Amino acid sequence: MTVSTPEQLREAVKADHVCAEYKGNYRGIGNFIRSDVIIMDIDNDHSEEPAEWITAEKLEGIFPDMEYMLASSRHHLLPKEGKSARPRYHIYFPISEITDAEVYGNLKKALQKEYPFFDGNALDAARFIFGADCEEVLVHDGWMTIDEEIDVSQVAEEEDFDSEDSESASGGQILEGSRNNTMSRFAGRVLKRYGITEKAHEAFLEHAKKCDPPLPESELKTIWNSAVKFFKKSIVNQEGYVPPDEYNADFESASLKPEDYSDIGQAKVLVREYGNELKYTSATDFLRFDGECWREDKQMAIGAVEEFLDLQLQDAMDEVARVEKALEDAGVPKESIQAGPKELLKEVDGKLIPLVYMLMGAQTYLKFVQKRRDYKYIVSAANTAKPMIAISVSDLDKNENLINTPYATYDLRKGLAGDLPHNPEDLITKITACSPGEDGKQIWLDALNLFFCKDQKLIDYVQETVGMAAIGKVYQEHMIIAYGGGANGKSTFWNTIFRVLGNYAGKLSAEALTMNCKRNVKPEMAELKGKRLIISSEMEEGMRLNTAVVKQLCSTDEIQAEKKYKDPFSFVPSHTLVLYLEKLKQKRIKIENDTTLEEENVDLPGMASIFTELMLTNKESDELKNIRKILVDWKNSITKSKYRYKVMEWNINQATNKNGTNKLPNLLMKEIIIQNPDILILTEFSFCENASEFFKKVFDERNYDYYPKEKTKNTKNKQNEILIAWRRELFDLCLDKCMYSVVTFENNKPNFLLVDLIEKKTRQELVVAGVRITMAENIPVKGTEDEKKKAYQKQANKRYKQMQYVYKQLEKFARVIMGGDFNNYRRRTELKDWNIGRILCDNQEYKIYTPKGQSIKEKKSIRGEEYEFAEDHFVTKNCEIDNEVYDRCFVFRDEKYINGEDLSDWNYLSGYPDHAILIADLLL
C-alpha cells in the first residue's frame, strides 16, 4: 500500500499492519524479503517530566530536513503498563529499499542509539503494529531520508565485539553502582596529569556528565576533595613523581600522542595509561580493576577506553592551544592563526615556519582523536590492545592466603592484623559482601546456639570448617554433607555464610554431581575457578552420586573447564564443597568397588539433623589455626526472590483432524508469536499437514524446545495430542522424563502430557503438565429426563476418575503447574456433577486458578445448545499463579470470526480455536 497524504495515512493505520514484505505473507525475521520504510515507536517512557516528552512539534525541530510520517498509537494520551497518560506515536521514515533483515534491524538499532527516545524494545525486522483510529497524523516533507544520515557501521562493530551483551551496552554512560569508583579513579588520573588546577577540575566535572543518574553536586565535591587529599598525601611524595608543570613543559611532544596514527599506535598509548587496570585472557575475555577487585566485564573495558579518549581529547586541545599561544607571543595576529596553517605559511617569515608545522601536527593530532571517538575505533583500540594486556587465567586469584573485602585485602596468615590496601597487581577477581567487624556478633552467636543446640564442641568444629573455606587452597580433600529434616537451620546457616563470602562463594547444581547428568557441565565447572565455598543443595531422592566428579571437585587435581563461547582452560580447585539435603539413607557410601568413605556423624538433639564429613584423605596443617576467627563474626541477611514466567494454555480445536489432513491456521502461529509465552500448553493439538512448518516457525526459529516432536500412539488411535513448549534459555529438560497417556475409545483416560523441567536460574525442578478431560459419555438427546440424569452422573464419575489418574502421575513430583481444558460445566450439565470444585479431587496440596469470565462460548450449535463456561484452568502444587486472564483478542485478527465472537457454524469453524487463551504469570 502506498501512502502519501494525511488522509491515506489515517486510513492505513486503522488496520493491524507491518512495514515490510515477508515470504508467504508470514511475518518473521527469517521470512523478510524487503522494506522501504522504517517504523519506530515513541512511548515517551524515557522520562516522567512532561516537559521532556517528545511531541509532534519537537520532532519537526529534531528532524527538520528529514522526510517522515507520524501517527498516534492506540495508547496515545492513555495510561500504559503502569505509566501515566502521555503522547505516544509511531513514526514512519522512508528509506532506500533494504533486502537484508540484519541490515534493516541494524539501521533501526543505530537510529535508536542516536535518538534514545525511540523504544529500544521494537528494533527487529518483523515489527507488528496494532491498528488504531488516529486523531493526530502528520506528513512531514523533507529532502533527506533517515538512512542517509545514520551510520549503521557502529552497530555492526558493536555486535562483532560483544554479540552476547550488545543490548546492554551503556553507550558511554556511567551507571548507578559504579559511579563513585569510576569518578574517584578519573579524579586521580586528571590530578596526576594536570595537578590541582582548574583544568583538572573542569575535566572531572565534564566526565561526571556521563553518570546516569547524575551524582549530586555534594557527592561530586566529596569525591573531588577526597582525591585531592589523597593526591597531596600519597602521589606527590612518591619517589620519581614528576610535577605536571615539568611533565607538560615540552609542548613539542604531547604525552598522549601515539607514535603513529594507527590502531597499534593508539593501543600502545592506551596500555601505557590504563594497563594497570585492564587485562585480557582468552578464557574470560576482558577484565577491569574497579578499585577493589578485577571484574569480567567487556563494557567496563570499553568504558576505560572512553575515559582514555576523554583525556586524550583534552591533551590534543591543549597542544593546539599551546602552539597557537606560541605563535601569538611571536607576534602573529590571532586572525591569521585562525585562518589555518596553509595561510600562515604565506604570511610568516622563515623563523616561524617550524611553529606553523607544529600547529599542523597539533591539528592533525586533534582530528585523529576526534575520529577515534567513534565507536568502531573504540572497539578496534580495545581489540588491538588484547595481546599487550594478555595474561594467563592461572594468574588470577593465585595467592591462596589473601581474601579480599570491601575494607581491605587480608593476609590470612596474619589474621585481622593482616589488612592490606587493594592492589591490582594481586589480580583478585573476588570480593566478600562485607568486611570483618563486631556488628551483629551477638545475633550470630545466638543463631549458632539455636542451629546447633548449644553444643559448643560442634560449634567449634563447624567454625574451623567454615574458616577453612576462607583459604584459597584445598588442605583437606573432603565433601561436607549437611542433612536432616526441614526447618532445622542447615540451609539458613550455609546460605548466610554464602552471602557473606560474596562471589568467593558459588552454587553448583546437584544434577552436576549425579550419574544421570546428560548435559555439558564444563561451563558450571568454569565458574568454580577462584571460589572458596561451593554449595550444592537439595539433591533429588534416589539419585546416585557420580564418584568421578565428586573426587575431582574435592581433590587437588586440575579441573578442565570452559566458559560458554570462550577457550577451555584448567585450574586447581581452591574450594570447600558442601552438599545439603533432606535424607541420607545409607550410613556407608560406596565409591567405585573398593573405596569406602569414612564418615563422622554428629546428632543434633531435638533437630534430627546430622553434619557428615566424608573424608577421602586427611591432611592437617598448622596454617589452619590462623583463620578460625575471620568468618564466624560476620553476619548478613537472607533475602528471598521470586522469578516470574508467562504461561499460556490454549485449546486449539484440532479435534476434528482425524485423518491428519487439516492445516494449522496461520492465526495460530501468529497468535503464539504475539503472546510470546515462556511456557506454552496446547490442548487438542494434532499433527496436521503443516505441523513441521508450524514447529519451525513458532519454536525452532524462536529458541523453544517442545514435546512431542513426532506423532505418538494417540495420533494412530485418532485421538488428540497435548503439546508443551518452553524457552531454552529459561529451562532445561530432564531427559527421559516426558510422559503421555495413550487414549483409546475404551480406556477412559484423559489427554495428558507431563514434561520435567529444570529452571535455569535456580536449578530447581518444575513439572509442567497439560490435560484435557474427555467427554467420557454421550448424553441421549432424545432420552427421558431420568435417562439423561443417569448419563450425566455416569459421565461425571468417569471424568472424576480421569482426574484421579492425572494426580496419580504427578504425586511423586514436588512442584507442578498444570493447565488445560477440564470440560467442566459442559454439554447442558445442569446438575453440575462435574464442576470446578471437583477438579481437585480432594487433593489439598493443589490449588486451582480460574480467571473471571468464560473460556468457551457457543451459540446455536448444531447440537441445538447454547452455553458459555469457564473450562480452562491452571492447577498448581508448591508454586503460585498471578494475573490469570482469558484472552480472546485473536478473534479480531482473522476473518473467520465475526464481531469478536466465534461463528455459530461448527463445520465452518473446523480447525479454528473456539476456546479463549488462558494466560497467567507463574511465580517461582
From TrEMBL:
NCBIfam families registered for this protein in UniProt: primase_Cterm
UniProt-recorded Gene Ontology molecular function terms: ATP binding; hydrolase activity
Ranges annotated as spanning the membrane: none
Keyword Hydrolase in annotation: yes
Source species taxonomy: Bacteria, Bacillati, Bacillota, Clostridia, Eubacteriales
Keyword entries, A-Z: ATP-binding, Hydrolase, Nucleotide-binding
PROSITE patterns: SF3_HELICASE_1
A Pfam family matched in the record: DUF5906
Domain SF3 helicase, residue spans: 457-663
Stretches with biased composition (Acidic residues): 154-167
Region (Disordered) location: 154-178
Name used for this protein in its record: Uncharacterized protein conserved in bacteria
